[in-house]
Specification:
The chain is 31% helix and 19% strand. It is of the alpha+beta class and 401 residues long. The strands form five sheets. The chain has a seven-stranded mixed sheet, sandwiched between helices. Strands 2-9 form a two-stranded parallel sheet. A two-stranded antiparallel ribbon has the order 10-11. Helix 3 crosses helix 4.
Length: 401
Amino acid sequence: YTCDSGWGCMMRTGQSLLAQAFVQVLLGRGKGSVIRTRSNILDWFVDDPEHPYSIHRIAKAGLALDKRIGEWFGPSTVAHAFQRLSQRHEDCPLSIMVPMDGAVRVSSTMQAATRGAGGLEGSTAMAWKPVLLLIPARFGLDKLTERYVHNLKQLFRMPQFMGIAGGRPGRSLYFVASQGDELFYYDPHFVKPRATPEELGTCPVPSFHCSVVRSQEIIELDPSMLLGFLILSHDDLWDLQTRLGRDMEKSYPLITIQDDLAKMNNDSKRMSRTYATTSVPTPTPAPTPMTADNGSGRSSQVHPNQAHTSQDNSGRTEAATVKESHRQVEVPHRDGSEAHVPSQQGGGSPGAKSEQQQHREETPPSSSSDTGFDIDDAFSIKSFDSEDDEDDDDFGGSDEL
């Protein structure tokens, strides 16, 4: 091909929208000479295969998007083609995002801005690289739905808005302003010779600039179009979100900005509080065995409320029923005599007997304790998933559930 007539109008209007974003970023900051900066911007769009945003580069980028050279591009194809070209352009002053379905996520926008500027994510003082949002949209089937007209006109009042690349079916135009129900546009459907290096140093450049501004009724717009928004800073993003919520009709929104970053922060704080307040049950420790004197000078270890049998040096077998450590211990012998062991709290001589001791002498010793303490309870540690097991039992405990 030696000419893009008949198939390159969407590429040309996309070039116009991208060039306007470059002018806002570079000239809006007052860096360098205006003429020199403009010539540098125009140089990126010269129709030469070596230039980053030439018609040759755009057409080749379309091959990876299932578009043949010489085939008409739609808004979505052009947006993705420019995104790929910007990633290969080392001197590109902005990052390009292509949100689908009109949903702009704050986290993705901030990631593109900080990654392009080399900043650290999550920092409030991070460097910010401008982000150009190219949003392919469709607001109707065969023709524009009239309920979208009010919101489309409101877009031209927003400082972040870069215009619309679209127009009529099979005929793309670049809309830059509105007045009443009229939209003003630049028309690329004029065949011109390729710009020469000498022309780039002058202004205006006949091959790039249009001397005629035309208009059309907004209702005549093709429903398929490409919207452009330039986000210069973090505050610019919140300002756009505020304007969209304040000036737009809620029933027919054009785009939405989803503040998923705040939601993720809230979820993270909620999870941190959950982990901080969650405690793991501590298993009940086993009772510590007690040491008692068996009367022969040797000490034996017995468990609370558990019968223990030992044998002294004389060969006699004794059954010791041991109470808790703070109670006194009684050891009845086989011959009927009694060995009295004072409690740890002291008090009383071996020969003195209290009423409680006399009552115990009359009552035969029992193999179980009368304290109500069961040794099985000391080692009955409930499993952490026992509640889940109970829930399974309520549903029948089927493995197929």
